[in-house]
Amino acid sequence: MGIDTAHERKIDKDTIITRNLKLEKRNRGQKSPNKIEEDREPDWSYSTFPKEVAAHVTQFKRNMSECLKEVQANDKRPIKRLSPKMESPVHAECLIACVLKRNGVIINGKINKDNLISLVGKFYSKDIKLMKKLDKNLDRCIESSVRYQNECELASHLNDCTNDLMISNKHKLTVNY
After folding, report:
1. Are strands 23-25 and 106-107 parallel, antiparallel or unpaired?
2. Which residues, 6 or more positions from 87, have their beta carbon under 8 angstroms from its beta carbon?
3. What InterPro entries does this protein map onto (predicted)?
């Protein structure tokens, strides 16, 4: 019983031990393609969206910009810190409420399920599995959200619940023992 050893190999921070217990050197000379992607500035132009959703994205961006101005002007509550590094410029839950109202999802404090499905469908219509799951489970989100009298809280809860439904569809993790 024993392990083959490499006595004359220098082991340092660039040494990689593979699954087969072989020693390899990490190549630190050239950046990996993923690292180059990380260093690049993000593209905020919305030009990367497919043509079939570009008009919806532009309209959504316009609504978001107008709502941001509206919420900043109207909401004078102290802003809660969302991140340890940055202050949020706006109350996110009221921004969500404004956008949902502009899209007809929230009307007079009531949630319009068809308009919510239509809004999500503008961006995810090709994902039939997701849209069916959303249609099937959205009532649960609506029922749990209507308890909130404040439209900002209602919108925030509805948004969180809807996003949870959508995320659980995209990222299922199965662990086999």
Report:
1. unpaired
2. 79, 81
3. PBP/GOBP, PBP_GOBP_sf
Can you give the pLDDT at residue 173? 44
User: Closest Cα partner for 124 from 162, 69, 80?
Assistant: 162
| Per-residue pLDDT tens digits for 81-123 | 554 545 555 567 888 899 999 989 999 989 999 999 998 888 8
Strands (E), the chain: 15-17, 23-25, 106-107, 110-111
Q: DSSP 3-state assignment of 118?
A: helix
Contacts of residue 71, defined as CB under 8 A and 6 or more positions apart, other chains included, come to 90, 91, 94, 95, 98
CB 99 within 8 A of CB 64: yes
Going by C-alpha positions, the residue among 163, 60, 152, 53 that lies closest to residue 106 is 152
CB atoms within 10 A of CB 158: 24
| 73 token code pair | 């002007």
Distance CA 62, CA 65 (A): 5
pTM comes to 0.59
In the structure encoding, which two tokens stand for residue 86, read together? 């940055």
* Residue 103 near residue 119 (C-beta atoms within 8 A): yes
